[in-house]
Each structure stands twice: as C-alpha cells, then as structure tokens.
Amino acid sequence: GAVVSQHPSRVICKSGTSVKIECRSLDxxxxxxxxxxxxxxxxxxxxxxxxxxxxxTYEQGVEKDKFLINHASLTxxxxxxxxxxxxxxxxxICSARASGTGDLRAGELFFGEGSRLTVL
Amino acid sequence: xxTVTQSQPEMSVQEAETVTLSCTxxxxxxxYYLFWYKQPPSRQMILVIRQEAxxxxxxxxxxxxxxxxxxxxxxxxxxxxxxxGDTAMYFCAFMKLRAWGKLQFGAGTQVVVxx
Lengths: 120, 115
Description:
The complex is a heterodimer. Chain A has strands at about 5, 10-15, 20-25, 30-40, 45-50, 55-60, 65-75, 75-80, 90-95, 110, 115-120. By secondary structure, chain A is mostly beta strands. Chain B is mostly beta strands. In chain B, the strands form 3 sheets. In chain B, strands 2, 5, 6, 10, 11 and 12 form a 6-stranded mixed β-sheet that branches. The interface between A and B is medium-sized, with 17 and 16 residues.
C-alpha cells in the first residue's frame, strides 16, 4: 500500500528554536497534503492545507507566521514551527491526497506516522 | 460549519463480542463522506471504513460495518467478533465533497478489548 513518511518521528528542542517536520509520499504523487495537530488524548485538528507550488491555506486561528508550510515538490511538504514554545508541544500528523497517477485512485488519503514535538 | 460528535469517551468489550460506537454530525451539505479511523498506540491513523452520503447501502469491511442514517445524521460503527488488536482510539470523521481531503474529526472513542 501507499506509504507516507514523516521525519523526524520525535524531536525535542529548546524554547525559541525552529523545528522542521517533513511529510513525504514515498510511492505516489500528492499535489495536496494536510497538516493536523493532536494534543494528548484529544482529537486531530486540521491546521492547514498544503498545495504543491502554491501557498498553504490555513484554518482559522492558526498562525501562518508561526507554522510555515512549504510544498516544493509533488512528494514533499514541510512544516516549520518557528520560535517554538512549550505550548507548541504536540503530535503533528500529515496526510497526503493521491493525485491519481500510477495505480492509486485520485483522491485517496494516506496518513503519516506522526511527529511528536516537545519544546523545553 | 460542521460538527462531529462522539459521545462515548471509552468502551470496553470482551474478545469475540460486538461493540457499537456512536457518531452524530451536523451539516448543511448534501454530498459528503463519512469515515471511521482507528488510531492504535503507535498513533498511525488507519482507515477502517468509509461511507458516501449519496449511497443508501451501509458500508461493510469484514468485521466492521456501519449504520448510516442520513436523515438522523447518525453514523455508528459496529465491530463484530472483537479481537485484542482492535484496541485503539476510534475517530469518526466528516469530509465535504467539495473540500476533498479536509477531515473534521470527532473527539474519539477509546475501545478496549479484554480477553
């Protein structure tokens, strides 16, 4: 089956530093990827939609300058948490929407394994 | 705006028994998809089953089936012959047809399967 890989799976950083999380579709092209945030024992909240070659679309209440999203290729989207603070500690999950090339149906959604960010 | 409500924070079921998880949603959309996702301790989101709103027939995937009541905006998941590996958090999710890929999740129901 299709695989979406997130890296790193766990990251610990100091307050004030920036952290980059990668979401990569390994065997299919994804023109659109989605970034979610999940607090402990809570649900997933959509943060933004990442479109290849264009600016990301952010959900209401999500600071675009805080959470920078870049989707430079059909297989890679990155989320950068800038000037991270302890309240940014969370589990970040991406999903990728298959563009329909190869043997994957267009629109199929696949989730990454998630990245746990801890800000000290 | 859509809301997805899962009113059962936790459900416990014995192996081989059946458990039903409830989900209700609110929307003004006429065309949409509903999903059930499973999140085991590994945190990987796994699609369990999906239902297209314009299809009357309830979706079934092996031991998993749904009871989709469009008028009542209800979408429950039945897990039959529960197995220990079914222990996980289960999320109900809603997706507008015109916003493909953007999922709105419910709060989740923790299912614990006991021997």
